[in-house]
Design a protein that fits this description.
Layout (H helix, E strand, L loop, with lengths): L1 E5 L7 H11 L5 E5 L5 H13 L4 H19 L4 H20 L5 H9 L1 H16 L4 E3 L19 H11 L6 E5 L2 E3 L5 E3 L5 H12 L3 E6 L20 E3 H9 L10 H5 L5 E5 L8 E4 L10 E15 L7 H13 L4 E6 L3 E7 L2 H11 L3 E15 L3 H7 L5 E6 L3 E7 L5
Parallel strand pairs: 1-2, 1-7, 2-4, 3-4, 7-9, 8-10
Antiparallel strand pairs: 5-6, 9-10, 11-13, 11-14, 12-13, 14-16, 15-16
Helix pairs in contact: 1-3, 2-3, 2-5, 3-4, 3-6, 4-6, 7-8
Length: 418
């Protein structure tokens, strides 16, 4: 069994869905994991935002539903059953939001935003089966069992493995299921974290002892930099699991950070390929470390903030204080990017998640003095060399710098447009 994962860009419209069919046409023994279509996740997030702020969420929801109806119509599928399913999904969302009584925000998010993957897979199932393909639709909410940590649910691997292996009864069959979503206790929908469809593919692959996983993207594979920042990017043809974990941890957006571990644990190779050029080799991720250091990689993280925390009475910042500070960051769900401590201060950089940071600062100010700088960007370079670093940070205001043998991170004032 092989696993193919198609992201939102690869199924963004009717033509893209037809392209998916051309990629899978000759395959058997295949598990297809699909994201929501195009920008559907963003649009459903907007529905939730409007609902929470008493805006016109009904019109926004209707727009999402009409988009999916139009895609189905363009595909000329034998579609009445699928149209009925779309209507049921719309009715569920409307009823849920109209009857909700002050549920937690993350719970509401998961019950609404996860519907994007249900819609996309139902449309793709309808289209493929109308073209004489034999595809079995599987409900990931009944296969990937999680706890009820909404928006970032944790997988119960034992139950999930049992449910997935029971569902896949034909080694040569073609199965279609959803990325991003799972099922928690009491039949509640959960999600695995933003962009979590890659992780879903890895979960299915791990439980099925898959031959390989292929993630189909709108890029040639994993590049050594974001083309929006660098004009001369280079394809990484082969990197190790470890290097892929490092790059995703530091912010490379091609692969979800949780994806690698389930694959590495069973030595399942991962390919990142272009759905626009399926015959190209793309990037292979496996246990081979020989090529990891051949090409430097560059990751820019925008909208960063630097917090400087110091004692109010000029006393030392000791291990007890640092432990207390780490605990506070963890409780507020904030990931520290870089850190630096001196005798009386502790400085950290992190993504500027304003609401969470405001709550953190309010909590810390009862015991500490807290200062901050915002409007920053973080540059991470894997396998750096000094001439390249000098060129990239020339004439920039540096607030914090860290180096290890393989990685350099520089926190800088963001450049303003002239």
């Amino acid at each position: 069994m092989k696993v193919y994962k198609f992201g939102g860009a690869s199924i963004k419209d009717a033509q893209a869905v037809q392209n998916l069919k051309s990629i899978i046409d000759s395959e058997s023994g295949l598990c297809i994991i699909v994201s929501a279509m195009g920008k559907t996740t963003n649009h459903l997030e907007k529905v939730v935002e409007l609902y929470l702020n008493e805006g016109d969420w009904r019109t926004a929801l209707s727009g999402v539903v009409e988009f999916h109806r139009s895609v189905l119509g363009e595909l000329n599928a034998n579609a009445q059953e699928c149209l009925d399913t779309i209507a049921k999904i719309e009715h569920y969302a409307m009823t849920f939001l109209e009857q909700d009584e002050d549920s937690e925000t993350d719970f509401i998010y998961d019950q609404i935003v996860s519907l994007g993957e249900i819609l996309s897979t139902k449309i793709i199932e309808s289209f493929l089966n109308s073209k004489a393909s034999t595809v079995k639709w599987l409900d990931a909410r009944k296969l990937i069992h999680t706890n009820n940590s909404y928006k970032n649910a944790r997988v119960n691997w034992e139950v999930t493995r049992e449910q997935i292996t029971e569902a896949f009864t034909d080694d040569n069959g073609v199965y279609l299921s959803q990325g991003f979503v799972g099922g928690g206790d009491h039949n509640r929908m959960t999600t695995l974290g933003r962009e979590g469809s890659d992780y879903s593919a890895a979960i299915f692959a791990h439980c099925l002892d898959a031959e390989s996983v292929t993630i189909w993207k709108d890029v040639a594979g994993m590049l050594n930099a974001d083309p929006s920042h660098f004009s001369n990017t280079t394809l990484l043809p082969n990197i190790s699991y470890r290097e892929a974990v490092e790059l995703s941890y530091y912010g490379a957006s091609v692969i979800h950070p949780k994806t690698i571990k389930p694959l590495e644990n069973k030595q399942i190779p991962l390919q990142v390929k272009s759905f626009l050029n399926p015959d190209a080799s793309g990037t292979l991720i496996n246990q081979n470390t020989a090529e990891d250091r051949n090409i430097p990689s560059y990751i820019f993280s925008n909208d960063q903030i630097l917090l400087s925390i110091s004692s109010r009475d000029f006393s030392f910042i000791v291990e007890e204080h640092i432990s207390e500070l780490f605990d506070a960051f963890a409780r507020h769900g904030l990931k520290i990017q870089t850190m630096q401590n001196s005798a009386i201060s502790f400085s950290v950089s992190l993504a500027n998640e304003k609401e969470k940071i405001d709550l953190l600062i309010r909590e810390l100010e009862s015991s500490y003095k807290v200062l901050y700088n915002d409007g920053l960007e973080l540059l991470t370079i894997r396998h750096y060399n000094e001439p390249i670093v000098s060129e990239l940070i020339k004439d920039r205001e540096i607030l914090l710098e860290q180096k290890t043998r393989q990685t350099m991170r520089v926190l800088m004032r963001a450049q303003t447009a002239e």
